[in-house]
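Appendix C: a fully annotated inverse folding record. The material below is reproduced so that readers can follow the format used throughout the book. The structure is listed first as tokens, followed by the designed sequence.
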């Protein structure tokens, strides 16, 4: 079971920030073999959704209020540590992120830029594809909306 914590950038300790950046690099840069600028200057405006298992960060997202990243509220940097995916923590961290958007921003319209191979996962969470597939950092993506 995941223990969920929600923090603003300034509420993150140095250790928490280091661990989440390390995990993002592990998944998005190393595992997906994608060279891109993860530290993009947007973390300061995000709410960070952290999923812990036995005190170890294993799942993460960041959320933004409407108008900052997209016109709608949004969820990004969705990840689960590779060896923890079999436990379906992706659903837990996404459900916590959707709930946090409702609680913190009083919104239900959410846009994501999803890696295309995860369409079915996001469909199961109530997201629907909008527009055409596109490449982002060399990986096929699709915009998806939940309302």
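Designed amino acids, in order:
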């Amino acid at each position: 079971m995941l223990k969920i914590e929600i923090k603003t950038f300034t509420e993150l300790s140095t250790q928490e920030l280091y661990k989440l950046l390390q995990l993002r690099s592990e998944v998005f840069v190393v595992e997906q073999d994608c060279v891109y600028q993860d530290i993009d200057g947007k973390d300061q405006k995000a709410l960070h959704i952290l999923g812990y298992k036995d005190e170890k960060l294993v799942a993460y997202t960041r959320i933004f209020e409407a108008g900052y990243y997209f016109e709608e509220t949004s969820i990004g940097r969705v990840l689960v540590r590779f060896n923890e995916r079999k436990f379906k923590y992706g659903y837990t961290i996404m459900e916590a992120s959707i709930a946090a958007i409702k609680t913190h921003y009083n919104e239900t319209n959410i846009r994501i830029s999803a890696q295309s191979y995860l369409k079915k996962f996001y469909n199961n969470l109530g997201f629907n594809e909008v527009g055409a597939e596109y490449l982002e950092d060399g990986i096929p993506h699709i915009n998806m909306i939940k309302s």
